[in-house]
């Protein structure tokens, strides 16, 4: 419940607020009294809201009027004993209670606030996508989506994990279509640059057509909107995605009264006088070419795909951007990291040369993402082949480790991993190049022994020996 700092009284209309506005989070209920004796007396209630939403104001008490204003009284939003009004974050609102006749007038006032909520929210924090079942979870529990054509789950995203959708055929399909028949807003993060080579890259589309946003590769990735129904129309904007630096960027689309507005990284960029409406059915691709090699997928990694079935304010767009930029949810609440037991893959690294008379060093890595820029941070168990590893063939390590193989037969050898825990594919590298290499162990060769460098010494002896 709120306390008196939310209410202030005056004998006439003040030019400025007479108390600091407080953030409306819980419902307020209170009572007061107004006295009029020839001159007006007012009570004022100033508030802000943390997110866009709706307030309901209920006033009881005879001969007292209630009016909702923006804070400087330049605009009356609503008047009456029962008021329901949309409100947006970043604005101060004022409720004015005014006695309409002489005498002591008592009242009660209740103010309720309901924050905005997405109709669908895809965080893409799942550990993997196999394409079987509806694996991308909608946080509302209504519109879970199925990964199409080999979408991978990777880290790090903007918040936890992300969906790696870098080819034109990658996409998601919700269990059932999502109604976006009037005003709507879409918030999502994408990671530049574009790598797939098709001309049009489409962020999402309605069943049967109508693209929310496309970018045209032939025009430095200029954005636009396309509608197939009721008639085929296309509107090009002026903003070009090709001007963006590589890395993650935040995108918001707001569709309202036939216009689509584009925000990048919390800032308004452009709008076009065309809006796609319908039953939303394609995430990260278009209806046109879907399921074919000519698909018009967006072709970029995506994270935090959130759908609202109403417009969101510029202040909330900026708030979402800043909240997610520091790893929180869109509304500022914290996110628990996914605990994924599976890793992306293992790597075996070798320099390509080996001798039968000396132990050969091999590096094993457990990789947490596709390019192995992140290592898996939990211990892993592997069995190395061929037999003969110093300390045993069964190894336990975390992230990366060097192991030595003593192999006394002159022959080609394939390094391998069997029974890995957790399981994951294995990739072999020789001199930094991946492939199915089989380095040869030789009976004779030259060994170079290089000492560890020491400060203040201009040179150290290098030992060269012949083996055997």
UniProtKB/TrEMBL annotation:
<dbReference type="InterPro" id="IPR013320">
    <property type="entry name" value="ConA-like_dom_sf"/>
</dbReference>
<dbReference type="Pfam" id="PF13385">
    <property type="entry name" value="Laminin_G_3"/>
</dbReference>
<protein>
    <submittedName>
        <fullName>LamG domain-containing protein</fullName>
    </submittedName>
</protein>
């Amino acid at each position: 419940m709120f306390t008196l700092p939310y209410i202030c009284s005056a004998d006439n209309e003040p030019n400025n607020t007479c108390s600091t506005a407080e953030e409306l989070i819980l419902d307020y209920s209170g009572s007061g009294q107004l006295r009029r004796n020839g001159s007006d007396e007012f009570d004022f209630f100033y508030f802000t809201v943390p997110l866009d939403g709706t307030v309901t104001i209920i006033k009881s008490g005879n001969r007292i009027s209630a009016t909702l204003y923006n804070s400087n009284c330049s605009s009356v939003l609503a008047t009456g004993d029962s008021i329901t009004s949309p409100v947006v974050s970043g604005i101060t609102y004022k409720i004015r209670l005014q006695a309409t006749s002489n005498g002591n007038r008592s009242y009660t006032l209740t103010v309720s606030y309901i924050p905005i909520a997405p109709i669908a929210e895809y965080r893409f924090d799942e550990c993997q996508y196999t394409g079987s079942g509806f694996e991308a979870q909608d946080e509302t529990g209504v519109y879970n989506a199925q990964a199409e054509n080999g979408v991978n789950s990777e880290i790090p995203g903007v918040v936890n994990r992300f969906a790696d959708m870098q080819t034109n055929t990658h996409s998601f399909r919700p269990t059932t279509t999502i109604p976006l028949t009037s005003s709507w807003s879409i918030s999502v993060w994408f990671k530049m640059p574009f790598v797939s080579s098709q001309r049009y890259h489409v962020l999402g589309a309605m069943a049967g057509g109508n693209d929310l946003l496309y970018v045209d590769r032939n025009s430095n990735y200029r954005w636009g909107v396309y509608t197939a129904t009721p008639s085929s129309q296309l509107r090009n904007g002026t903003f070009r995605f090709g001007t963006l630096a590589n890395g993650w960027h935040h995108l918001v689309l707001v569709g309202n009264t036939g216009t689509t507005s584009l925000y990048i990284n919390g800032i308004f960029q452009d709008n076009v006088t065309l809006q796609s409406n319908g039953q939303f059915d394609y995430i990260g691709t278009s209806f046109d070419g879907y399921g074919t090699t000519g698909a018009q997928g967006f072709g970029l990694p995506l994270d935090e795909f959130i759908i609202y079935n109403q417009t969101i304010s510029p202040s909330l767009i900026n708030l979402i951007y800043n909240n997610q930029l520091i790893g929180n949810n869109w509304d500022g609440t914290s996110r628990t990291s996914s605990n994924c037991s599976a890793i992306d893959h293992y790597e075996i690294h070798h320099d390509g040369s080996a001798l039968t008379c000396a132990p050969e060093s091999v590096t094993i890595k457990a990789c947490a993402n596709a390019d192995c820029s992140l290592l898996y941070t939990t211990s892993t168990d592997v069995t190395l082949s061929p037999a003969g590893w110093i300390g045993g063939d069964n190894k336990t390590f975390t992230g990366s480790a060097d192991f030595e193989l003593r192999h006394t037969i002159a022959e080609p050898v394939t390094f391998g991993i069997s029974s890995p825990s957790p399981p994951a594919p294995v990739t072999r590298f020789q001199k930094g190049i991946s492939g199915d290499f089989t380095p040869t162990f030789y009976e004779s060769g030259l060994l170079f022994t290089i000492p560890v460098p020491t400060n203040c010494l201009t040179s150290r002896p290098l030992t060269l020996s012949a083996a055997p």
